[in-house]
Write a structure and sequence with these properties.
The protein is mostly helical. It has four helices and two strands. Strands 1-2 form a two-stranded antiparallel sheet. α1 crosses α2 and α1 crosses α3.
Length: 121
């Protein structure tokens, strides 16, 4: 007689299991919340898997969803305080080296960068 070993564990699912449907507005609200907190927190709070939430974020970014986010471009500040101990910034192009000391006039720095860009091939 041939003996077949059975499964060591059996799971029984009870109840009705159905896919949930999220309106575009609900998705947008959950995606927005995930940017304010984190993907893990927002997913846990709404009972959505993190993978699903990352998919919704990608769809919102790429515009695949009717409710999407607009791209925003921010202008850099006119003057930013130096970061760390650096006392100067060096810009090296093909044959030009420019050293800009900490505290330089922001308008002058912008003019230098603009001149280098316009001279670039």
């Amino acid at each position: 007689m041939l003996m077949v070993r059975g499964a060591a564990r059996v799971e029984v699912f009870t109840g009705t299991h159905r896919r949930r449907r999220w309106s575009p507005e609900q998705k947008a609200a959950i995606v927005a919340e995930s940017f304010e907190t984190s993907v893990g927190e927002a997913a846990g709070r709404h009972g959505v898997s993190r993978a699903q939430l990352f998919n919704w974020r990608r769809e919102a970014r790429d515009g695949d969803d009717p409710v999407s986010f607009a791209r925003v471009a921010a202008e850099p500040p006119a003057f930013a305080a130096p970061i760390g101990p650096a006392t100067s910034i060096e810009i090296l192009t093909a044959d030009i080296l420019v050293r800009i000391r900490s505290g330089a006039d922001p308008a002058l720095v912008s003019a230098i960068v603009g001149a280098l860009r316009s001279a670039a091939p």
